[in-house]
């Protein structure tokens, strides 16, 4: 017995790997560029082409960028009706393009916009979707979507054997951006709106850009992060001082966020942000698998914890067992001392 909503598909009719290229304020989101490295790898394994799909207004000048980063072609839909971004409008555009070209795989970066739009696209195309993937592979012509289940104690290998396209997302910074090569050539397909653009159901009344003084977590080279072991929000004042001396930024674990000690946008981990700093200092963080997942790309991890059996030490390059209220002030003092010595040295 078949479901009328889910008509059978002929898998052999679907060819190509797509990456949805998110744009904003005249530039391409870094997370979309990172997904091109994934797309290139999977396209080669499937023996097919890689396309970047761009939907927006006044973005024609960006059309070559996905090609420079590894795409074979770009499908461009540039129209005033696609500004500003509305999930339903952009999502329907991607759906209609997918129905026309029939790609076998669609990758979407797990940004705020991507996470909102991707389920709409999957539901409209009556196919499956796997969110927050950490790796991909190909088996018997199917995309293997690998991600940690909640708890991150193992890896799930998910496939969509009977539906096309196969859709997956990955969070920013999970994958490295491919090298940019302006010598690469490719095809740019400029599409016209051939479908009825839906009413977004909402209207943007006003938009204000919030000025951020510090470097975003995902781009920070030095991060000082606190957890439940700090005992209270006051502990972050000490961490802020340490981060300031190091030229870094502060972050926190989910426990610290749940306690209201630090805002959610500062959360590192499986349900927060994945980071890749040169130095990550974990203070009072036990080292749950969900948190470790978010720092696996850090070059150096230093752990400070009063519990010698804390799991964070198994994932740290250097560990200090002790009370952070005694250790962190000593670190600050030593950093300041070395700065002064450097200033007066000939």
The number of strands is 17
How do the SSEs run, as a string of H and E?
A: EEEHEHEHEHEEEEEEEHEHEHEEH
Q: CA-to-CA gap between the ends?
A: 84 Å
Find the CATH superfamily of the largest domain: HUPs
Summing up helix and strand content along with how strands pair, one would put the structural category as: alpha/beta
Poorly predicted sequence stretches spanning 5 or more consecutive residues = none
* Number of distinct helices: 8
**Average pLDDT:** 92
- Main sheet properties: 7 strands, parallel
Number of separate domains: 2
Q: For the CA atoms, what is the radius of gyration? A: 23 Å
Provide the β-strand percentage band. 15-25%
Order of strands side by side in the largest beta sheet? 7-11-6-1-4-5-12
**CATH architecture annotation of the largest domain:** 3-Layer(aba) Sandwich
CATH class membership of the largest domain: Alpha Beta
Give a brief outline of the structure:
The protein is an alpha/beta fold and 346 residues long. It is built from 8 helices and 17 strands.
What's the helix and strand layout?
Layout: E1 17-21, E2 23-24, E3 27-28, H1 30-46, E4 50-56, H2 65-68, E5 73-78, H3 87-101, E6 105-109, H4 112-124, E7 129-130, E8 135-139, E9 142-147, E10 156-158, E11 166-170, E12 187-191, E13 222-226, H5 235-246, E14 249-252, H6 254-258, E15 279-283, H7 289-294, E16 301-305, E17 318-321, H8 324-344
Parallel strand pairs: 1-4, 1-6, 4-5, 5-12, 6-11, 7-11, 13-14, 13-15, 15-16, 16-17
Antiparallel strand pairs: 2-3, 8-9, 9-10
Considering the chains and any ligands shown, give keywords for the structure.
346 residues; Rossmann fold; 2 domains; five-stranded parallel beta sheet; 27% helix; elongated
